Amino acid sequence: MPEVNKPAPTISPSMAPFYEAAKQGRLLVQKCDDCGLLRFPAHELCSNCLSTRANWVGVSGRGEVYSFNVMHQVYHPAFAAEVPYAVIVVKLEEGPKVVSNLVGVKPHEIKCGMPVEVVFEKLNDQVTLPKFRPRASQ
Amino acid sequence: MSLRGKCAIAGLGATRMGKNYDHSHALGFAIEAVELAIEDAGLNRSDIDGLLVNPGVTWSNAMASFALQQAMGMRDLRLTSTMNAGGATAGSMVMHAAQSIAAGMANAVACVFADAPLKPPKPQAGKDGGSAAAYGFARGLDAAYGLFGVNAQYALVARRHMHLYGTTNDHMGAIAVAQRKWANMNPMAQFLNEPLTLDDYHNSRWIAEPFHLLDCCLVSNGGLCVIVTSAERARDLEKPPVYILGMGQGHPGGDPMDTLVSGAPLAKETAFRMAGVNLQDIDIVELYDCYTFTVLITLEDYGFCRKGEGGPFVEGGRIAPGGSIPVNTGGGQLSSFYMWGMTPICEGVTQVRGEGGRRQAPKHDVALISGNGGILSTHSTLVLGANA
In chain B, fewer beta carbons within 10 Å around the N or the C end? Predict the structure, then answer.
């Protein structure tokens, strides 16, 4: 099978702390220094208070599947062998939502509300992707 | 000052739709549509003193309305703009035209959409997901996880609705089937001669679950133009005036996965207040339908049923020919042609005039027209009527 790399995100300066932490197995989101609202991905402004001051903070990595789809068409050759595959939106316990994949679960076994926790998957030397796996609910 | 009935749509021009290669680019379709609308209204090109353009995805010139003005040799326009609020733009152009005419700033305004995404001999290969990133709520890293395109993003919103309210593919399929029945009576429709059953719908290939191919709108080459003028002027022209009774917009912001509400409630409030109508007064409903799901949720948001009940509401042929509410009577963007918000306006004007032929709704005094852009991001409402 020809080797085609999956599209790797460009590491912008504003997102660099997120990628650095992911390589070390930690999930970060951005936190407004003024009103405390958490957000992801990085934004220049807080959509609540319009502050430009923010920092990155660690989160639990726990959340639930908020929504998901199952992708059947090949939009990029690197995913040709994977269709159909699911893309999930995880709502983290702390509030922000992240797009990701659910590992170890067939697409049609995914349900909204499934409790999940973060795992880290190395894409290349620069990028490690947070993904999620099922966890036992409390 | 209320603008109720102050202006009217006096001209309608539509090119052939779909795999139409009469022109190699959008501008050519735009010119043809404007010429057809001028002829339909019984006007001359020199009567047009306003030109508003909503360029489709393939229009390369950022100043599309100026390009069209120059191409058509139009001089001394009093109003022009290139506008874009996604699928809500067509309604917004009609509003801008009507406001300008009522304010004495222009007399006859051509509102135009045109696009040419289909290329002979075959369509361009799928894009790499750039369209998804165009939306303000698109999240980073999407492509690394295999999330590409608007279909996939809209599917995430539809999934939330299914999860919270029990909406099913049978419900969405009922919309696809109903609209195809309407399209089968619309000579302009790309699917005029192709009937559709619920089984056909379920058997159509998956794009991004929960969306089948037949949950998604068509791709069309073509151009569409309406000419807005004052009510007084319209009464002297060729075709029966289609009065603009109400206009409104609503742009909710936020994450559509959380809200599951379009801008319709806000836009409706403004438009219905201006028109002095309520839902019981509406004879014909033409809703923006980039997806079956969009119709379902828009019906909820206008109050035809309660939030979450759109699925059961569309079952049993309620919105199909012979049902109690004629919805998307030309087949909509799912089954007739995809001209963004111009598709529902075109059909609304056709119906109010009584020019719907075999698909003509028996009662057609008042039409509700919606436009919807992004993923439930922008919304426009028009209330059109046969009487001012």
Answer: N
Domain borders along chain B are 7-120+219-235
Cross-chain Cβ contact A75/B257 below 8 Å: no
CB half-sphere exposure, B178, CA atoms < 13 A: 27
Which residues of chain A are within 8 Å of residue B375 when distances are taken between CB atoms? none
The one-letter code for the residue type at B368 is L
Tell which CATH architecture fits domain B7-120+219-235: 3-Layer(aba) Sandwich (3.40)
In the DSSP assignment, the letter for residue B164 is H
Instruction: Find, in chain B, the residue whose alpha carbon is nearest to that of A39.
Output: B139
Residue B254: closest C-alpha in chain A: A47
Beta carbons of B144 and A123 less than 8 angstroms apart: yes
pTM for the model stands at 0.94
The C-alpha angle with vertex B314 and arms to B327 and B157, in degrees rounded to 5, equals: 95
- pLDDT digits over B112-166, tens only? 999 999 988 654 444 433 444 444 444 558 999 999 999 999 999 999 999 999 9
* CA–CA min distance B173, chain A (Å): 18
pLDDT digit string, tens, across residues A19-71: 999 999 999 999 999 999 999 999 999 999 999 999 999 999 999 999 999 99
Residues in chain B closer than 8 A to A70 (CB atoms): 206, 208-209
